[in-house]
Amino acid sequence: MRPRPLPAIDGAGPDFLCIGAQKGGTRWLYDQLQLHPDFWMPPIKELHYFDRRGPSPASCALRLRSQEDIARTNRRQAQLALRPLDQRDVDFLEAYVHMRWWWKDVDAYARLFALKGDRLSGDVTPDYSALGERMIARIMRRLPKARVVFIARDPVERAWSHLTMHMRRGTVPRGLDADAVTRLLRRRFVATRSYPSEIVARWRRHVPDDRFGLFLFDDLVADADGLRARILAFLGADPGKASGTIPAAFNRKQELEKVPLAPALRERLARHFAGELKASGEAFGGAAKDWAGRYGLGS
Predict the structure, then answer these.
(1) Hey, what's the torsion of the CAs at 87, 88, 90, 93, to 10 degrees?
(2) Phi, psi at 202, each rounded to 5°
(3) Of 30, 122, 119, which is closest to residue 83 (Cα–Cα)?
(4) Domain 16-39+119-295 is in which class?
(5) What's the half-sphere exposure (Cβ side, CA atoms, 13 Å) at 179?
(6) Which member of 160, 166, 250, 280 has the lowest number of beta carbons within 10 Å of its beta carbon?
């Protein structure tokens, strides 16, 4: 199937970027958006254009070369509660994988979203939370109207969820003692994503207050319907419309193995993040004000 040229639309670009937090509910958010009638979301969740040197393996694996590919993939999409794919997805994936990756062409990236038509669309890539000032400034200069969403999570819970993901994948060994875990927390792949107050401050220096949406993972756990409604309203969509047949609390990852956090290790992580727990509570308010207290660290 031959891809068509992307539409030439002045001012094309994503309506929003969801920059994280990693392990903070971004998969939940993508699921709610990709099935909502007000959105056309890219066929893969994370585009990673600004933080990697090449397209994601998921995008290459999903490339659709014929109507048979689309039909076969859509049978699987339906089983996984994912929206059906069409010609727009073919065009998007072909343009995406053939972009210049060594030089971040923000104009070419923006043109990908011309395919959304009159619907809302965006990029849900939590690793953008680790981008530096220069890249953030460059993105927002080109996309000044884009909204930015960040779902902050208690740093102790987020870091442990991050590490257990790598344990399931076999890239971090199981049964580590507290000293080994503390050393991992200092590694860049964890540390750059584990200080939400710094992430939010860095992005807010380049995003107007009315276009930065800060939300809390605690609210997803306590009231998924309410958090869904607030995020949809912030993005300009109708919270009253359903996301297909999935409920607001739909959790694609609920069957994944959960590695328990032993009390002694929990205490070590809390000490490691003590300053950030307090800083986040002061900066974010809401449920974040209780983050330090749940570890006996005071407010």
Answers:
(1) 180
(2) -65, -45
(3) 30
(4) alpha beta
(5) 0
(6) 166
pLDDT tens digits for range 40-60? 999 999 999 999 999 977 777
Confidence at 31, pLDDT banded by 50, 70, 90: very high
Q: Judging by DSSP bridges, how do beta strands 147-152 and 212-216 pair with one another? A: parallel
The answer on pLDDT for 1 being more than 60 is no
Q: How far is CA 55 from the centre of its chain?
A: 16
Identify each DSSP E strand in the chain by its residue range. Answer: 16-18, 122-124, 147-152, 212-216
What is d(CA 239, CA 83) in angstroms, rounded to the nearest whole number? 18
Q: Which two tokens stand for residue 275?
A: 């300053």
Dihedrals φ, ψ of 151, to 5°? -105, 105
> What is d(CA 186, CA 191) in angstroms, rounded to the nearest whole number?
6
Q: Which of 38, 128, 147 is nearest to 83 (CA)?
A: 38
Sole residue written with tokens 């080994």: 180
Domain boundaries, the chain: 16-39+119-295
Parallel/antiparallel/unpaired status of strands 16-18 and 122-124: parallel
Alpha-carbon span 265 to 86, nearest angstrom: 48
